[in-house]
Amino acid sequence: MTVPVIELRGASRRYDDGPPALHEVSLTVRRGEAVAVLGPSGSGKSTLLNLIAGLDRPDTGTVTVDGVRVDELGESGSALYRRSKIGMIFQFFNLLDDLTVADNVALPARLAGVARAEARRRAAELLENLGIDRHAGAYPGRLSGGERQRVAVARALMNRPPLLLADEPTGALDTAAGQDVSRLLADLNAEGQTLVVVTHDLSLARSCTQRRVEIADGRLTEDVPPRAAATEAVR
Ligand SMILES: Nc1ncnc2c1ncn2[C@@H]1O[C@H](COP(=O)(O)OP(=O)(O)OP(=O)(O)O)[C@@H](O)[C@H]1O
Ligand SMILES: [Mg+2]
After folding, report:
1. Which domains does the chain have, with CATH numbers?
2. For residue 80, how far is its CA from the centre of ligand 1 (angstroms)?
3. Residue 235: what pLDDT?
């Protein structure tokens, strides 16, 4: 198999005096894999993504992404890490309303020090690939939910991250727009993009990921490998 992109070893995270939000989670995700993370509300899915994204640190255990020990990064190292290694997609898009679509997409490259003309060129190319180039000059507020999520996907891909993370990317969309985003994620994975998607949406899990990991009370309870997940998807 190929090199791991994500390697969690015995990662635990506890908030205040509550029960652990994550309890000794070990997980390896390899290059080119698409993994769906499923589990009830409060089971630790977002906590897991936050550890992988370096937005939070485990109390014990290690988190390694693309060779970087994410759990050991300081604040600026962690911001730099996110900029270069991670694309993130959220339920509510998190676009900046006072920037145009093109400027939203170009922003991660500008923050990474890429020249304006080059950032614009890449943003235009991504918007065209994702079929939303006609909205390049519009403000996000004028777009439908599905279009906004496409913009968010374009932004997430801007710095060509080895890893794309999504937390309920279809959670705020109607069925048709949700399927559209599912297909988009499936296409990206087919092109080789490594993907971790947290979702309650079983049809999203089936259409855009080969492997399914389940979490309950902060523990991994199930890890359905690609072949079994594919068989289930057919059923
Ligand atoms: N910043 C925080 N401070 C205190 N407790 C937190 C914090 N973040 C998460 N928790 C707790 O950790 C547990 C796991 O939360 P998490 O957000 O990871 O769940 P989730 O699986 O993403 O849920 P949902 O499906 O509702 O988004 C919950 O009990 C939650 O209340
Ligand atoms: Mg969550």
Report:
1. 4-234 (3.40.50.300)
2. 25
3. 53
